[in-house]
Design a protein that fits this description.
The complex is a heterodimer of chains A (679) and B (1254). Chain A is α+β, with helices and mostly antiparallel strands and 679 residues long. Chain A has 19 helices and 27 strands. In chain A, the strands form five sheets. In chain A, strands 8, 9, 10, 11, 12, 13, 14 and 15 form an eight-stranded mixed sheet that branches. In chain A, strands 2, 7, 16, 18, 19, 21 and 22 form a seven-stranded mixed sheet that branches. The longest helix of chain A has 20 residues. Chain A starts with a helix and ends with a helix. Chain B is α/β, with parallel strands linked by helices. Among the domains of chain B are: 194 residues, Sandwich (Immunoglobulin-like); 66 residues, Zn-finger domain of Sec23/24 (SH3 type barrels); 244 residues, Rossmann fold (3-Layer(aba) Sandwich), CATH 3.40.50.410; 126 residues, Four Helix Bundle (Hemerythrin (Met), subunit A) (Up-down Bundle); 116 residues, Severin (3-Layer(aba) Sandwich), CATH 3.40.20.10. Helix content of chain B is 46%, strand content 13%. In chain B, strands 5, 7, 11, 19, 21, 23 and 24 form a seven-stranded mixed sheet that branches. In chain B, a hairpin with an 8-residue loop joins β14 and β15. In chain B, α14 packs across α18. The longest helix of chain B is centred in the first third of the chain and has 22 residues. Chain B is globular, with a radius of gyration of 30 Å. Chain B starts with a helix and ends with a helix. Classes of the chains: A alpha+beta (679), B alpha/beta (1254). The interface between A and B is medium-sized, with 23 and 25 residues. β11 of chain A pairs parallel with β15 of chain B, so a sheet runs across the interface. Chain A: One of its GO terms (biological process) is intracellular protein transport.
Chain lengths: 679, 1254
């Protein structure tokens, strides 16, 4: 057999599920004693190259409030052609198409290796992918140029039948009509006015199509394409849009001395959301917001246009002195919820040296499964490559993205679902398996995950409901079924079903940065999340192969090269001696070939990480005493500080100038607390 | 003050005097010290006025003097009384005659003026005539011979004249009228004056004159067929008539003499066109005189004389034909005019007149004089003779036809004759011939018919009275009721022609209190210290000194100011004065600008303000020494010290935010909804703009215009266009958020035409295509203006919006309107609400526009109700214009629209203007009418002010005025020129002040009063029921006239209507106002039309309002290139079935074609010989190579050129359905909507006056 570690790894590879406890407590009482809740990290679209989708639809339990999907855990009577639901014990006949079923002729969903299986739904028209660019024009010329180029480039990456749209904004918000010839048309909204979705749709002349769209069914794509002049197939408007982007000018309104440009981000997003809502509700769509600064006017304003008023800091927030914060946050939350409801995700690409208001806007992406990418400038490889990676493709040539996902969790009677944490919103589905105790986004057994990619991971929390006095019989198993319906990037509707059973078993920055980090944290799998919590530090030296070392100041030695991966940053740090050697150019000399290799090793490792990580991490190459070394120094445990440097009496390591306590101090304190009775 | 004033005045005086004196007035000057012989003369004469004096002077002096006196003094008595008491009326008539005489005299003087054409010769002649005139009184003949003696032809003429007179004798009535017209006026007047006062006593002399005349007639007759014809008749009449009324004779005699002179003078050249007209005009007066006189006939006879010679001779009979070819048609009208006489005739002696009638027909003009409706009675006796005459006359006409040619020699008069004949012959004959029906209905026809058989007489009477079938009915009714002869009541045409005739010199503005020529007269102006009447016209040039007087008289004290009026090419525009960095020099206290009324004192170191008397230091850089008269040495080098109108360059102190303004911008906002596209409007506008943009206003034609342009299209959303020069294609930006309008772009919206030409052209090409298939029918309106306003705000400049709009804005947006047209409200107390804006939105929007200097011009293309009352709020408040093209069709309306648009875009306009009227202590500007906005009580704010906009300002006393200093006003307009220059235009005006009511009444201008009244009334409908508004008007008018009657007119019977000479047209014009669509709508007049007209009037100047209320109606049968036919009165009776008439109102242009027009004429005009084949849908006449066609098209062209709006030509065929529309403009008739006829209204007015007096 395999080790327990291997079992866990195997489960995660096959089903994308990793539980906190692989043996579940058999009663509520025991569960509470565990402190750590029964929960799992679930990666709905875990990449499974070896899992071809089946071309039919799942068989559902006929009980109205169950509707669990036939799975390998079900009891099957091949003769009677009946199967028993392992969640509600309802006995269901197989549909006529399963007439030939037998012991030796089982459908895939009954085979144990298909605990995760993907169905392709044939019903309904294929919905095209929709990409709506929302572009800030209050940028420096250089930035705008770079952004325009990236956008133009992205057109070539889109599938020809994908629909694209363009909204630009500055002081005004312009929705560009793409189907026109001759005169370029755009609809303009003033950036200071909050408009309802209905108003926006009326103003865009979308009222009529909205009537049919409101029936709850997405419009037939042809109809929609014909009626919505703002979203057009790439192949049709490629040239137009390329020209349009080429002619895009910086916001023409003059910016007086001492003012910020007026940036109507809030209204722009509102228009984008309203536009999609009116034209393609419940169809996968991606709003891609590119901003070069904070919203400065209208709803969603984060800071006024007076430069003398700085943007809010943590300090202001703590003092409750950030006057736009709550209002703006609320505004973006409302937008995010609307967008999520319609299955549209929102990406934010924020490139500016100062803050851009991600704190207020974070929910846009958090709730809709969109990306947030933060950089210093659109004219950096960080942005350019990250943006390019958004459109990366899998082994089938399909985008590594999916839309409009709905994740449903079904549990056996021993468990109920407390909630989920991740890039999702509740669908308020009150099934019997919903716990009253909420953890994360609770009160529902269904969540909408508008934007998904293979690494999107949610934390699902369960509650053991068995009473202590009526424990589950020995050998009882609890089961959980994850049903993920989504729109594949090739426009197919698909349903992925994962059914698992267990024997009853188990981290300072600017506000924007924090939001950014948290955003990624809640959606990454365990390994990546852990990296974020505790960066990895590798040490390279002549003393042996690279080795992981403690993330501690004591690891910072003169003759080492350190490689730190914090998920968001990759830092290569050359120790003092190494740095001097390098400066002296020894690596250029043939006799010091080994030194050259030593220098190269961390670079190669870093490159490997850079190529797979999304978003692309900030890549920092620094050395002892370099200004960028702060990235490293801020992460390591300050075991040596200016306070205790000499107390330790050792020459090794580098002192950190901080008042923070070291891990040692923390642990000591923790121990004290753990053993004290009053705790 | 005084000094300054004087200085300027002085110069003018000096100048004018010479001119006047030398020409024809020399004698006058002698007699009248007053410099203004022509104008003042009368006035001064007046005061002394005394009619009595007048008499004596008359006899002793040339008629002119007399005339002058009489004219001003004598109220034109209207004998309404005749019916009531002929006898009593008899006496009153006397007064009337005087008036007429005066009138005629004045006219005479005027005519003298005209004659000037021949300058030296004529004048002398004139003077001679006068003498003669005097002579004549004693012995007309001698004088004639003498004068004429030299020129043999002349003699003949005179002979003819005399003959005419004689013939006319019977027609005399007409005669007098004519007489005056001719230079003879003086004589006429004398005659009249004599007649009136001592008429009877003098009567004998007339007789003598008559005799003398007779001879001539015979003479003339012999020479000319006409004469032969007429003379006899005339003679007969005379004989008969003579006995009855010696006065007539006198008149004749007097008139005759005058005539001769004029003729003599004129004969040479002037005769042809002008003369006739002159002759006619005078006639009326004469007729009036006649009216006064029991013996209308005499007047006629006299009238004939005027027609004089030819006219008369032929006059009565053929005169019409001969004298006024154009009148040919008039003949018919004449009949109408005759009607007056006719009526009398009919009443009793119809027979008598028959003879005269024919002549009268021609002379109709003379008839006006007829006031005498009353007189008719006397005529009755005459009838017999007249009958005979009439008979003769007819023949005469025929004969005349031939003679005319020869006669024409007496150019005008002959022409008249010829004219008549044709009319009679041609028109009548034809009419009768072709139209059996006609003859049927009108027994009179036969008369006209070639032969003029005996029966004709009676018929004629009728026909005269009633040229048209309808008329026939009318007369029957009217006559019985009022027995008033339309020809006997004051004729607008007569007054207009008289004024034309007497205006021969350029009008100099140096003399305070001098009334300018009428707006209908062509004249040149010389600025000598007061603003040209083209800039300012006053209701009264002699203001009452006290508020009590003003209140008593009820005469409104107002000025119609047209600050940026376009001047004719021969008058220099106001000079620009630069007082340097410190800005224009102004009075310290009242801030009046430096002007001729500032009096420099203390050797020139200070000046005293003429308005408030405050003394202000003269800045060193402006110092100048004074000469011995106390005026600055550089007085004539500086426009602001010597002229009435000039401009100052303004400094930054006069600018918004103390910053010189950028050049203005024009924004074109085009409705592209379904209707707009379908009607072709969008396409037309876009096509036109491509070329029109090259014609944006500029001050220097060499330089390209500084005006920037922008474009917006809209339906229920707005489309802005980025036409930046760097773009390959224009960009459209749609703004759907109409509830909260904003401008989506800054850079690239307002551009220089030349820089962005390609992009703009591309845009204008694509707009029609883009919306070709639109199905959007809803529109917004408020946001459209807001958009333009916001664009100007964003560009921080003033400008003008050109909005092309089609429908009621029902789309959801600010300023959304609903259809509220409710005919049931008309006539109720709630009617006023229909004129008020439906929502308050536009008023506040207008306020914002004004603050920004955003002027809005609105072009409407409605197919149904659009609520003009509301939509026009912003244009009206911002100094803009509204144009309305109901049921716009590209094919038929394109020309009108495009011409309006072209003119509107190109015309001179100022922006962001503020007008302030300062006055001397004692009066104050209290009320303002026009297209503007006022946020306080003194500053008139005009977002835009163009050359066509006039503002009427009313003044009220707040203290006493002094006769010595008069009343001063200074209108200063601060504005931004089309090149972005900030300027101050200053107009100064001084009028006299009087302590005698008579002076007030002598110096009024009725046209201006009507302008004021109409604006006052049209504004009144906003807050009062229209009925109340009309009553108010009638009351005030009655009070004005009653006050005159009570305080200024000589005692006479209460049954007599006596009108001040200057206001004798007040009733007729007022009636036109009362009958206007606004105050008395017909069933087919939409609320929009009324609202449209209402706002239109608010900014009209006097010339426009005049023709608007009393349309110009010209017979065009005998057009000659370069000369204008004499208009006829706006009454169906004046139309001849055989005639073609052109009618213009400033908004409409009709060509009325009688049903019996000669084929040849039709061929010449329409290119078809058949009446039925005339296409009444054409909007322009075919270009045919014949003099008639050319002249007619030239005439139409010149009409259009005179008006600020292009008039679409409508061809109206008699008896056609469209004739109803046309008839609406025959304002002397009863209107379909219940408006009174002139005659009826006059009676009503008389009744009102009598009530006030009792």
């Amino acid at each position: 057999m395999t080790t327990y570690q291997e079992f866990i790894q195997q489960n995660e590879d096959r089903d994308g599920v990793r539980f906190s406890w692989n043996l579940w407590p058999s009663s509520r009482l025991e569960a509470t004693r565990l402190v750590v809740p029964v929960s799992c990290l679930f990666t709905p679209l875990k990449e499974r190259p070896n899992l071809p989708p089946v071309q039919y639809e799942p068989v559902l339990c006929s009980r109205a409030n169950c509707k669990a999907v036939l799975n390998p855990l079900c009891q099957v009577d091949f003769r009677a052609k009946i199967w028993a639901c392992n969640f509600c014990f309802q006995r269901n006949p197989f549909p006529p198409s399963y007439a030939g079923i037998s012991d030796v002729n089982q459908p895939a969903e009954l085979m144990p290796q298909f605990s995760t299986i993907e169905y392709i739904v044939q019903r309904g028209p294929a919905a095209p992918l929709i990409f709506l660019y929302v572009v800030d024009t209050c940028l420096e010329e250089e930035d705008l140029q770079a952004l325009k180029e990236s956008l133009q480039m992205s057109l070539s990456l889109l599938p020809p039948n994908a629909l694209v749209g363009l909204i630009t904004f500055g002081r005004m918000v312009q929705v560009h009509e793409l189907s026109c010839e001759g005169i370029a048309k755009s609809y303009v909204f003033r950036g200071t006015k909050d408009l309802t979705a209905k108003q926006i749709q009326e103003m865009l002349g979308l009222t009529k199509p909205a009537v049919t769209g409101q029936q709850g069914r997405p419009l037939a794509p042809q109809d929609a394409a014909a009626t919505c002049k703002f979203l057009q197939p790439v192949h049709r408007v490629d040239m137009n849009l390329t020209d349009l982007l080429g002619e895009l000018q910086r916001d023409p309104w003059p910016v007086p001395q001492g003012k910020r440009p007026l940036r109507s981000t809030g209204v722009a997003l509102s228009v984008a959301v309203g536009l999609l809502e009116g034209t393609f509700p419940n169809t996968g769509a991606r709003v891609m917001l590119f901003i070069g600064g904070p919203p400065t006017q209208g709803p969603g304003m984060v800071v006024g246009d007076e430069l003398k008023t700085p943007i809010r800091s943590w300090h202001d927030i703590q003092k409750d002195n950030a006057r736009h914060l709550k209002k703006a946050t609320k505004y973006y939350e409302a937008l995010a919820n609307r967008s999520a409801t319609n299955g549209h995700s929102i990406d934010i690409y924020a490139c500016a040296l100062d803050q851009t208001g991600l704190l207020e806007m974070k929910c846009l992406s958090n709730l809709t499964g969109g990306h947030i990418v933060m950089g210093d400038s659109f004219n950096t490889s960080l942005f350019k490559q990250t943006f390019q990676r958004v459109f990366s493709k899998d082994y089938n040539g399909d985008f590594r993205m999916a839309f409009g996902g709905v994740l449903e969790v079904k549990t056996s009677r021993e468990l109920k679902v407390s909630g989920a944490i991740g890039p999702c919103v509740s669908l308020n589905s009150k099934s019997p398996c919903v716990s009253e105790n909420e953890l994360g986004i609770g009160g529902t057994s269904q969540w909408k995950v508008c934007g998904l990619n293979p690494s999107t991971t949610l934390g699902i929390y369960f509650e053991v409901v068995n009473q202590h006095n009526a424990p589950v019989p020995q050998g009882g198993r609890g089961a959980v079924q994850f049903v993920t319906q989504y729109q594949h990037s090739n426009t197919q509707r698909r349903i992925r079903v994962t059914t698992i059973a267990r024997n009853l078993c188990p981290s300072i920055h600017s506000p924007d940065e924090s939001s950014y980090y948290r955003h990624h944290f809640v959606r990454q799998d365990l390994t990546q999340s852990l990296i974020m919590i505790q960066p990895i530090l590798y040490s390279y030296s002549f003393h042996g192969p690279p080795e992981p070392v403690l993330l501690d100041s004591s690891s910072i030695l003169p003759d080492r090269i350190l490689l730190m991966d914090t998920f968001f940053q990759l830092v290569i740090y050359h120790g003092e001696t190494i740095a001097q050697w390098r400066k002296a150019g020894y690596q250029e000399m043939a006799e010091y070939e080994n030194f050259k290799q030593l220098l190269q090793a961390p670079l190669d490792d870093a490159q490997e990480i850079l190529q797979t990580r999304f978003p692309m991490p900030r890549y920092i190459d620094t050395e002892h005493g370099g200004s960028q070394a702060r990235f490293l120094l801020s992460k390591v445990n300050p075991s040596q500080t200016h306070n205790n440097l000499y107390a330790w009496g050792q020459e090794t390591g580098a002192p950190i100038l901080t008042d923070d306590v070291s891990l040692q101090v923390f642990m000591d304190h923790l121990k004290k607390l753990a053993v004290s009775s009053s705790a | 003050m005084n000094v300054n004033q004087h200085t300027p005045m002085a110069s003018p005086y000096g100048q004018p005097q010479p001119s006047f004196g030398q020409p024809g007035y020399a004698p006058l000057d002698g007699s009248y010290p007053a410099p203004y012989a022509p104008y003042n003369g009368p006035a001064s004469a007046y005061q002394p006025g005394a009619p009595p004096q007048g008499y004596s002077p008359f006899t002793s002096f040339p008629s002119k003097a007399l005339a002058a006196n009489p004219v001003s003094d004598l109220p034109s008595p209207l004998d309404l009384g005749p019916v009531r008491g002929p006898p009593t009326s008899g006496p009153p008539p006397v007064s009337a005659p005087q008036q007429y005489n005066q009138y005629s005299q004045s006219q005479g003087s005027m005519q003298n003026g005209p004659p000037p054409p021949t300058q030296a010769p004529p004048r002398p002649a004139v003077s001679q005539p006068y003498n003669q005139g005097a002579m004549n009184l004693s012995g007309p003949h001698p004088s004639y011979p003498q004068h004429y003696g030299p020129p043999s032809t002349m003699q003949q003429v005179t002979n003819q004249m005399t003959g005419m007179q004689i013939t006319s004798g019977p027609p005399t009535a007409a005669g007098p009228g004519y007489a005056p017209p001719h230079s003879s006026q003086p004589p006429v007047s004398t005659g009249y004056s004599a007649a009136p006062q001592a008429s009877y006593t003098q009567a004998p002399p007339p007789v003598s004159s008559a005799p003398t005349q007779p001879p001539p007639p015979s003479g003339p007759a012999a020479p000319q067929q006409y004469y032969s014809g007429p003379p006899p008749s005339s003679q007969q009449p005379f004989n008969s008539s003579l006995p009855p009324t010696s006065q007539q004779q006198q008149q004749f005699t007097s008139s005759v003499p005058p005539h001769p002179p004029p003729q003599q003078t004129l004969p040479p050249s002037s005769y042809s066109g002008p003369v006739p007209t002159q002759s006619q005009p005078p006639v009326p007066p004469v007729s009036q005189a006649q009216q006064s006189f029991p013996t209308p006939q005499p007047p006629f006879s006299s009238a004939p004389p005027p027609v004089s010679q030819s006219s008369f001779a032929t006059g009565p009979p053929p005169s019409a034909p001969g004298s006024f070819p154009p009148q040919g048609p008039p003949p018919s009208s004449q009949p109408g005019s005759f009607p007056p006489p006719g009526p009398p005739l009919t009443s009793a002696p119809s027979c008598q007149y028959p003879g005269p009638m024919p002549p009268q027909q021609q002379p109709p003009p003379s008839q006006p004089s007829p006031y005498h409706s009353g007189h008719h009675p006397p005529r009755p006796q005459m009838p017999p003779t007249s009958m005979a005459q009439s008979n003769h006359l007819p023949p005469g006409p025929q004969g005349p036809a031939g003679p005319p040619g020869p006669l024409q020699q007496p150019p005008s008069q002959p022409g008249m004759q010829t004219g008549y004949p044709p009319q009679q012959n041609g028109a009548f004959g034809q009419v009768r011939g072709p139209q059996p029906g006609y003859s049927g209905p009108y027994p009179g026809q036969p008369n006209y018919g070639a032969p003029a058989p005996a029966p004709p007489a009676q018929k004629r009477l009728d026909p005269d009275a009633i040229p048209s079938p309808q008329a026939s009915d009318m007369p029957a009714v009217q006559k019985p009721r009022h027995r008033i002869d339309p020809d006997a009541i004051p004729s607008p045409i007569q007054v207009i022609e008289d004024d034309k005739a007497k205006t021969t010199e350029p009008f100099t503005t140096g003399v305070r209190g001098q009334a300018p020529p009428l707006v209908t007269t062509n004249f040149q102006v010389q600025d000598q210290g007061n603003a040209s009447p083209r800039f300012i016209r006053c209701t009264a040039y002699n203001m009452p000194c006290t508020a009590d007087m003003a209140k008593q008289s009820q005469v409104p004290l107002a000025a119609v100011i047209k600050p940026l009026a376009t001047l004719p090419p021969d008058e220099a525009p106001p000079l620009v004065v630069d007082h340097g960095e410190s800005g224009p020099i102004r009075c310290n206290r009242c801030k009046a600008y430096m002007c001729p009324y500032m009096q420099f004192i203390e050797g020139g170191r200070r000046f005293q303000c003429g308005f408030c008397s405050c003394v202000t230091e003269v800045p060193p850089h402006y110092f100048q020494h004074l000469d011995h008269t106390g005026k600055r040495v550089d007085c004539y080098d500086r426009p602001e010290l010597s002229l009435g109108s000039y401009e100052f360059l303004a400094t930054v102190d006069y600018c918004k935010n103390n910053k010189l303004p950028p050049p203005p911008a024009f924004i074109f906002l085009i409705d592209v909804s379904y209707n707009a596209v379908k009607s072709g409007m969008v396409n037309i506008v876009c096509q036109e703009l491509k070329t029109l943009l090259d014609c944006l206003p500029r001050e220097n034609p060499e330089v390209e215009s500084a005006v920037r342009v922008g474009f917006v299209t809209y339906n229920k959303v707005l489309h802005f266009y980025n036409v930046k020069s760097s773009l390959a294609q224009p960009q459209m930006m749609v703004v759907s958020d109409v509830s909260d309008m904003f401008v989506p772009l800054l850079d690239g919206f307002l551009v220089n035409v030349n820089e962005s030409r390609q992009v703009i052209e591309s845009l204008l090409d694509q707009i029609p295509e883009m919306f070709a298939d639109t199905r959007e029918t809803e529109t917004v309106f408020g946001p459209v203006i807001q958009a333009g306003l916001e664009a100007l705000k964003a560009a921080d400049c003033a400008g003008k919006l050109f909005v092309f709009h089609t429908s009621l804005p029902i789309a959801e947006a600010p300023g959304k309107l609903k259809n509220r047209e409710d005919k049931k409200l008309i006539g109720t107390d709630k009617e006023k609400s229909l004129f008020q804006p439906q929502v308050g939105f536009y008023s506040s929007l207008a306020k914002e526009c004004v603050a920004q200097g955003c002027c809005v011009d609105l072009f409407l293309f409605p197919n149904q109700y659009v609520d003009v009352a509301t939509l026009a709020v912003v244009p009206v408040s911002t100094g803009g214009s509204v144009y309305k093209y109901t049921y716009f069709q590209a094919q038929s309306d394109q020309e009108r629209f495009l011409n309006d648009l072209r003119r509107d875009v190109q015309k001179l306009v100022g922006f962001d203007a503020v007008m302030r009227v300062r006055t001397s202590t004692g009066i104050r500007a209290t009320d303002f009418f026009g297209s503007f906005y006022m946020s306080n009580t003194t500053d008139v704010e005009l977002a835009g002010l163009d050359c066509d906009k006039a503002i009427t300002v009313e003044f009220k006393h707040d203290d006493k005025l002094s006769e010595e200093t008069g009343a001063l006003m200074q209108c200063a307009v601060l504005y931004t020129s089309c090149s972005g220059q900030r300027r101050l235009r200053v107009h100064n005006m001084a009028v006299n002040c009087c302590s005698q009511l008579a002076d007030l009444y002598r110096n009024c201008e009725t046209d201006t009063i009507i302008n004021y009244f109409s604006k006052y009334a049209f504004r009144g409908v906003l807050s009062n029921p229209t009925k109340a508004v009309r009553e108010t008007l009638v009351n005030q008018c009655a009070q004005i006239l009653a006050c005159y009657r009570k305080n200024c007119a000589s005692p006479s019977s209460a049954g007599q209507l006596i009108l001040p000479e200057c206001m004798k047209l007040l009733p007729v014009y007022l009636n036109c106002v009362l009958k206007s669509d606004v105050l008395l709508p017909g069933a087919d007049v939409s609320l929009d039309d009324r609202a449209y007209l209402r706002q239109l009037i608010s900014c009209m100047d006097v010339a426009e309002s005049h023709v608007f209320f009393y349309p110009r109606l010209l017979p065009v049968m005998k057009l000659e290139s370069g000369s204008l036919p004499v208009a006829v009165r706006d009454s169906e009776e004046r139309l001849s079935k055989g005639g073609v008439y052109l009618l213009e109102t400033g908004l409409h242009l009709f060509l009325w074609v009688g049903a019996s027009v000669q084929q040849e004429l039709l061929l010449n005009i329409f290119g078809t010989p058949s009446f039925s084949q005339i296409d009444s849908n054409v909007t322009s006449l075919p270009v045919l190579d014949n003099p008639i066609s050319q002249a007619l098209r030239e005439l139409i062209y010149s009409f259009r050129a005179q008006r600020s709006r292009y008039m679409k030509l409508m061809v109206v065929k008699q008896e056609d359905r469209a004739e109803l529309i046309f008839r609406h403009f025959l304002v002397e008739d009863k209107s379909a909507s219940g408006g009174a006829s002139y005659v009826d209204f006059l009676c009503h007015m008389h009744k009102e006056i009598r009530q006030l007096l009792s």
